[in-house]
């Protein structure tokens, strides 16, 4: 029986790993190549007995592999599913070349952050993160101490009762923390030059913007608080219902600085044993980056039948940052736990909001491909910000419109007002991208046309405000910012278990329409881009073609 299968696909720096652990490195190839780590039961036992990552008394690079006050200790023996979670982080991080690229992403990110001086997080942000991790560790450890395994079931030690949902939640949280610990240990083993404090930026990168803004505002520097006017993501879900096909076309792109173009598409499969009663998903496929535990984009395709995507909600009301406090669950933990523990959209929402910390605030669009199209719970929307949330079943609205879009604008009128959006020019139906999609969605009735639409710009004279922005092409005030990728799947691909995903890892380009590929040259030659190709001229590729076998181009 396979205990763990970890599949990682890479956008620019690509690997192929065979079952005999042979590694072929294909630097910056055009497309998505794959790395596959398949752990058999015997290999897992040998790994536990012999691998230094599981020995707490190891001295490596001057560091003792022992307790970290804010992360759980590595399992020193076979702890079942806890060991698998630790390995899911450590095996990914120990692959050849991985640490170097992760360090480059970290330095590229910090070089591009005006709110960070040098390569170290501000003290108040770092203190917040460590306080939060200590709280998570304490809560999960407390719940673990009350649990024992009897006949492949988890019971409370003092009773004959099966563990409750809250305890299940904290066991899942502990698994995410073990993934972080495993990845950090692999960095140490591979001679990483970054400190533990710097490493924490990698899993926390999605939470970081709200934390930096919180403390800049709290410390009397409102002028340093970043205001976003260009959005973060675009979502398109198109209903296809004709004589030839009955499906949903699902597309997503991510808007960000080109400094973090070193992208990673991951497929992580854990064969749960003692946690199988409450871990509903074994396979998560998601766009991410080196050193990331979660997506950040966000785009997830799960073998539970759920597709989860988000477009960030923008904050124009700095007072909301006061609602963020450390005794809560950060985004990267919340989303991983929700993905694992949920079999329906409603369960996903409940799990995500459990102790939700209010960082990386977003509108989530959830599609349950197991449900009949248009039935209750088939497509749901969650607007979640610090201190507030509102969820909607939008199945009827989706049927009436024939599509659903996400544009970094809350669907909830209450949250729209809390965040101080301009409802006239920046409401859910009045946003510029909303109007563009509404005008073009009727013509997009094939997979190719939906993939073209999610890459659409169409206005070389104002390239920063479209579905797939290219702010670098703006003649005045341009910046190396835009849609850095696009992802595409279909409901039938998720429903039939193949979890097939297509993607493109580059800003949109079409020379005939006046959009050349982006190059780190000219006025953008000084944009941080360690390890990144000088020209980003990549196209659509199939990332994964089945649930078990990665696509290799």
UniProtKB/TrEMBL annotation:
One GO-annotated biological process of the protein: lipid catabolic process
Molecular function (Gene Ontology), one example: phospholipase activity
First and last residue of the signal peptide: 1-18
EC numbers: 3.1.1.-
Keywords carried by this UniProt record: Glycoprotein, Hydrolase, Lipid degradation, Lipid metabolism, Signal
Family listed: Belongs to the phospholipase B-like family.
Role this protein plays: Putative phospholipase.
Name of this chain's protein: Phospholipase B-like
Organismal lineage: Eukaryota, Sar, Alveolata, Ciliophora, Intramacronucleata
């Amino acid at each position: 029986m396979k205990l763990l299968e970890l599949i990682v696909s890479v956008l620019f720096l690509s690997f192929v790993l065979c079952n005999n652990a042979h590694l072929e490195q294909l630097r910056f190839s055009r497309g998505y190549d794959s790395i596959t780590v398949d752990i058999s039961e015997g290999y897992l036992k040998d790994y536990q007995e012999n691998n230094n990552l599981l020995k707490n008394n190891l001295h490596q690079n001057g560091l003792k592999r022992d307790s970290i006050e804010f992360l759980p200790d590595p399992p020193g023996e076979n702890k079942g599913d806890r060991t698998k979670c630790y390995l899911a982080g450590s095996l990914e991080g120990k692959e050849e070349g991985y640490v170097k690229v992760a360090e480059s992403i970290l330095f590229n990110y910090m070089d591009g952050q005006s709110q960070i001086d040098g390569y170290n997080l501000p003290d108040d942000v770092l203190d917040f993160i460590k306080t939060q991790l200590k709280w998570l560790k304490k809560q999960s450890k407390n719940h673990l101490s009350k649990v024992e395994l009897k006949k492949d079931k988890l019971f409370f030690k003092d009773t004959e009762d099966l563990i409750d949902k809250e305890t299940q939640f904290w066991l899942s949280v502990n698994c995410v923390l073990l993934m972080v610990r495993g990845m950090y240990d692999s960095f140490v083993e591979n001679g990483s030059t970054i400190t533990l404090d710097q490493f924490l930026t990698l899993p926390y990168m999605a939470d970081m913007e709200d934390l930096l803004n919180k403390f800049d505002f709290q410390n009397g520097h409102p002028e340093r608080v970043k205001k976003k006017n260009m959005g973060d993501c675009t979502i398109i879900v198109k209903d296809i219902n004709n004589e030839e096909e009955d499906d949903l076309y699902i597309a997503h792109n991510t808007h960000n600085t080109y400094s973090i173009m070193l992208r990673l598409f991951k497929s992580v499969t854990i064969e749960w044993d003692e946690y199988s009663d409450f871990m509903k998903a074994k396979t998560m496929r998601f766009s991410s980056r080196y050193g990331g535990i979660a997506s950040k984009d966000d785009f997830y395709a799960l073998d539970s039948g759920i597709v989860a995507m988000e477009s960030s909600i923008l904050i124009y009301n700095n007072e909301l940052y006061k609602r963020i406090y450390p005794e809560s669950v950060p985004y990267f933990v919340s989303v991983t736990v929700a993905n694992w523990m949920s079999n329906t959209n409603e369960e996903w929402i409940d799990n995500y909001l459990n102790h939700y910390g209010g960082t990386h605030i977003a509108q989530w669009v959830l599609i349950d491909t197991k449900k009949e199209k248009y039935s209750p719970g088939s497509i749901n929307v969650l607007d979640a910000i610090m201190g507030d949330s509102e969820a909607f079943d939008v199945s009827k609205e989706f049927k009436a419109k024939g599509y659903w879009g996400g544009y970094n604008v809350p669907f909830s009128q209450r949250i729209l007002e809390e965040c101080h959006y301009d409802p006239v020019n920046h409401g859910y139906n009045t946003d510029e991208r909303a109007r563009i999609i509404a005008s073009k969605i009727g013509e997009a009735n094939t997979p190719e046309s939906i993939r073209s639409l999610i890459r659409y710009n169409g206005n070389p004279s104002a390239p920063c405000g479209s579905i797939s922005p290219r702010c670098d092409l703006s003649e005045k005030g341009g910046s190396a910012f835009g849609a850095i990728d696009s992802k595409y799947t279909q409901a039938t691909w998720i429903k039939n278990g193949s979890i097939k995903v297509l993607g493109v890892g580059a800003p949109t380009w079409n020379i005939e329409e006046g959009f050349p590929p982006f190059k780190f040259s000219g006025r953008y030659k000084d944009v941080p881009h360690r390890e990144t190709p000088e020209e980003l001229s990549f196209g659509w590729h199939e990332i994964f073609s089945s649930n078990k076998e990665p696509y290799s181009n």
